[in-house]
Design goal:
mainly alpha; 2 strands; globular; Growth Hormone, Chain: A; two-stranded antiparallel ribbon; 76% helix; disordered C terminus
Length: 423
């Protein structure tokens, strides 16, 4: 492919998206550049503090429990208070909680503050996802979600390598660095992003359209099926943050070596997310989700055969491809199934699947590795991948003819400098 073709492809990938999206994208990038706690919490507690795998699993699970609590609450606040105030409050409180965690000494205090960090950091997700669905046209959403995921992993790739070496000298510096960057994100959102929450039109008010509550979300069978499958996929992918560092630590690998291995995940997404999204953007989402589930499960299963940094890095390549395919495809599906005036609650319930996985994944990894060995953990990932693949195939049969209306028919919110209008 010529340089001119590459330039044209890059321009097509980023063109046509509103300015507000790029400020939100910038906020995401800055936030992920400071992602220290989620990546190095396990190694911090085992190598720096000397706690057992079971205790580490408990602490990280409490981090996930905090996310479970905040997911639904933040989704409701996103619809009621608005996207912008929810996002600013979540990021500011996360900065405080992360800084506080770096100074905790007692095991009970570490556990409590870790739960607080999970609660505050997860609260921003429904607002970010709802705002993105508000400001981006339906036909551009898969591309927008892919670009946002690209920013997440660009920051993750850089922070993993840098923070891995920082952790060799001072974990506290890592905590304080993440707190500073998260606070910068809150300031950026407050200054640059207008509120994007859709307002009800006069016709909707006259028709006395019922409010969308959590019960509405729970009764939406197809959407809750997506939430359940998202939980299974999340349980697999999160072993990169929980099971992999535990297994590598038990096998004698260093913090820096884990940082290099996991950085392959972010680096590949930075390199491949945009071109792969261009290839899959118009393809059948059912097939894409099925393939991604199988790649994820078997990719982690291959970890059982990795005995060196380079062989482990190759296994990361396999399940990273699954991430590249799954993330924008599934996020596009979630936005497609979410009603305009209930996006916060729907996104909150979707975020709940990741939060519950954050609760279960570390407990699962710690228990299985400590009592049965890492091989059984990686085998179970292959099984979960096959179950998720079957679930996607069954769930999405006849989607275009059933619950999910074609994305092009969904309303889009255009954000203007002074106000937001439903178009």
């Amino acid at each position: 492919m010529s340089v001119a073709s590459l330039r044209r492809a890059a321009q097509e990938s980023v063109s046509g998206l509103p300015r507000e999206f790029w400020w939100l994208w910038t906020s995401t990038l800055v936030n992920r550049l400071g992602a220290f706690v989620a990546t190095f919490m396990t190694l911090y507690l085992t190598l720096e503090r000397g706690y057992s795998a079971s205790f580490v699993g408990l602490v990280v699970a409490l981090h996930g429990l905090g996310g479970v609590v905040s997911s639904v609450v933040a989704g409701v606040l996103t619809d009621r208070l608005g996207r912008r105030p929810t996002l600013v409050a979540a990021q500011a409180s996360t900065a405080f909680a992360v800084a506080l965690l770096g100074f905790m000494e007692h095991p009970a205090a570490i556990a409590v503050v870790a739960m607080l960090v999970g609660m505050t950091s997860n609260a921003s997700r429904p607002a970010v996802q709802a705002m993105m669905a508000d400001i981006v046209r339906p036909e551009d959403r898969v591309r927008a979600f892919a670009l946002n995921y690209w920013a997440i992993n660009l920051g993750f790739a850089v922070s993993s390598m840098v923070a891995g070496f920082i952790a060799e000298y001072s974990y506290l510096a890592g905590f304080l660095g993440e707190a500073a960057l998260t606070l910068a994100c809150a300031v950026l959102v407050y200054i640059k992003l207008p509120e994007s929450r859709p307002v009800r039109t006069e016709a909707e008010k006259a028709a006395a359209e019922p409010e969308i509550g959590l019960g509405t979300v729970l009764r939406d069978g197809r959407f809750m099926g997506v939430v359940g499958l998202s939980f299974l996929i999340s349980l697999i992918f999160m072993q990169g943050s929980f099971g992999l560092p535990l297994a590598m630590g038990a096998a004698g690998f260093s913090t820096a070596e884990f940082g290099l291995v996991i950085a392959v995940n972010g680096l590949l997404i930075v390199l491949l997310q945009i071109p792969v999204t261009r290839l899959i953007e118009r393809r059948d989402p059912q097939k894409l989700l099925v393939v991604s589930a199988l790649l994820a499960g078997y990719g982690f299963a291959l970890t059982a055969f990795g005995g060196s940094v380079w062989s482990l890095a190759l296994t990361v390549c396999v399940w990273t491809l699954a991430e590249i395919i799954n993330s924008p495809t599934q996020m596009g599906l979630v936005a497609r199934l979410s009603p305009v005036h209930g996006r916060g609650r729907y996104q909150g319930m979707y975020t709940l699947s990741w939060a519950v996985a954050s609760l279960v994944a570390p407990l699962m990894a710690g228990f299985v590795i400590q009592h049965y060995g890492a091989g059984w953990l990686w085998t179970s990932m292959a099984v979960l991948g096959m179950v998720a693949a079957l679930g996607y195939w069954l769930l999405m049969r006849g989607l275009s003819d059933g619950d999910g209306a074609p994305a092009a028919l969904a309303p889009v919110l255009v954000v203007k400098p002074a106000a937001a209008e439903v178009v």
